[in-house]
Specification:
The structure holds 2 protein chains of 2 kinds.
Chain A (H helix, E strand, L loop, with lengths): L2 E5 L3 H13 L3 E5 L2 H10 L4 E4 L8 H9 L8 E6 L4 H9 L4 E4 L4 H10 L4
Parallel strand pairs in A: 1-2, 1-3, 3-4, 4-5
Helix pairs in contact in A: 2-3
Chain B lengths: L2 H15 L8 H14 L5 H11 L2 H12 L10 H17 L5 E6 L6 H12 L8 E8 L2 H9 L1 E2 L1 H4 L5 H7 E4 L2 E4 L1 H4 L2 E5 L12 E6 L8 H14 E9 L12 E3 L6 E4 L10
Parallel strand pairs in B: 1-2, 1-7, 2-6, 7-8
Antiparallel strand pairs in B: 3-5, 4-5, 8-10, 9-10
Helix pairs in contact in B: 1-4, 2-4
Classes of the chains: A alpha/beta, B alpha/beta.
Chain lengths: 121, 278
């Protein structure tokens, strides 16, 4: 079963994403900010990371840069999932090493489409 | 809705589009026609039916037909047909048309344009192999309303996230307020025209590839057969027909045969070109 780490400070968003991804047969891990997401990755690198941008303690883009610079940090597929919906943020995310980008709000169809595009579905 | 009104709307839609509405589609009829009725100041479908019977206004009848035949679509729908087009069909056609350097593609029932624009983006990505080629993408639909939206190439955030890889959004779209607009260079690759598949379309000329996906499922057997036979007449003998995942030519039109190993792709029963790909 592939694993997906959902990183979002909103409990509701984590719950909605978890429900969709569990239906798609992912094993789910959760983190509420970039720092705890890094700890989770150090413990066990997930196959996919669904990543919010604006979070306390450590935001999504700083997490991604740190992850990509770390040992085995190139491995996971990272899909941003954020309310930042402008081209500048999208370009910044992709150049920092994100594989895909979801603009909130999302639904099951968008999650399925994006996960399928990056080859994990 | 009473059965006379259901039959009235069903007849209007079937004779103008070929779409067959069965009883279980009543919910669809209600959800699509109530907004139309309200726009005309009518408070129910009974009132809309009465208006139809009273005026027999052809414009109203077309509006009803368009409301029932407009279907949701998305970029690179089902993914695989586009991969097959790029990896199997296009390379063979580039060889076969090397002297002429011309390619014509028709997307029938293009709705709001995502399918032809997906093909246009895909062809642009393949531009290095196609220097000096003249490629025409004709996109048609019954509904003028969807064609206007298609021509504008403006899509909501929701629409650009279903099927469109982020790299292609970055490359080919501009943000316009809350919407995303496909670049004029991609829009210029597609020619949109209103066209009804039930009517003679021989005047559009011959095509190398026809995408007619998720249309036939709405037709009865006789209409499917008529449309497929007319598509056959305008498709090059070594060309390819793409149908939707739930559609087939089998038992409907024996002038086509499936391309082995390529689900949803059909070619002339006489063709040897695409058959070699199987």
């Amino acid at each position: 079963m592939p694993s997906c780490l959902i990183v979002d400070d909103s409990k509701v968003v984590r719950m909605v994403a978890r429900r969709i991804l569990e239906d798609l047969s992912f094993g789910i891990l959760e983190a509420e900010d970039g720092k705890s997401a890094l700890s989770s990755c150090q413990e066990k690198m997930p196959d996919v990371i669904l990543l919010d941008w604006n979070m306390p303690v450590m935001n999504g883009i700083d997490f991604l840069r740190t992850l990509r610079g770390s040992k085995e940090g190139e491995q996971p597929i990272v899909i941003f999932c954020t309310t930042e919906n402008d081209m500048a943020h999208i370009r910044e995310a992709i150049s920092a090493g994100a594989n895909e980008y979801i603009m909130k709000p999302f639904d099951r169809a968008i999650i399925e489409a994006k996960f399928s595009q990056v080859g994990v579905l | 809705m009473n059965s006379q009104d259901f039959q009235l709307f069903g007849d209007i839609v079937r004779t103008r589009s070929g779409l067959v509405l069965t009883e279980e589609k009543i919910y669809l009829l209600e959800s699509r026609l109530i907004p139309l009725a309200r726009r005309r100041g009518l408070d129910s479908l009974e009132a809309l039916a009465a208006e139809v019977r009273r005026t027999k206004d052809e414009r109203l009848l077309m509006e009803i037909t368009e409301a029932m035949t407009t279907n949701e679509t998305f970029f690179f729908r089902d993914t695989r047909p586009f991969d097959t087009f790029r990896d199997v069909v296009l390379p063979q056609l580039l060889k076969a048309r090397a002297a002429k350097k011309s390619l014509r593609i028709w997307t029938a029932a293009c709705s709001t344009g995502q399918e032809p624009y997906s093909l246009a983006m895909l062809l642009k990505e393949e531009a290095a192999k196609m220097a000096g080629w003249r490629v025409e993408i004709l996109a048609t639909d019954l509904s003028n309303e969807v064609l206007e939206k298609a021509k504008a190439g403006l899509y909501s955030q929701f629409e650009v996230q279903r099927g469109l890889p982020i790299q292609l959004l970055m490359k080919h779209f501009q943000q316009v307020g809350e919407m995303w607009q496909i670049d004029s260079s991609i829009r210029a690759m597609v020619k949109f025209q209103p066209r009804n598949l039930l009517e003679d379309f021989s005047s559009i000329g011959q095509f190398d590839v026809v995408f007619c996906r998720n249309v036939l499922i709405y037709f009865d057997q006789a209409t499917k057969s008529q449309v497929l036979n007319r598509v056959y007449d305008i498709l090059a003998v070594d060309g390819a027909l793409f149908l939707g995942g739930a559609e087939t030519v089998l038992g409907i039109c024996d002038r086509f045969k499936p391309v082995e190993g390529q689900r949803g792709v059909y070619t002339s029963a006489e063709s040897g070109l695409l058959a070699a790909a199987g």
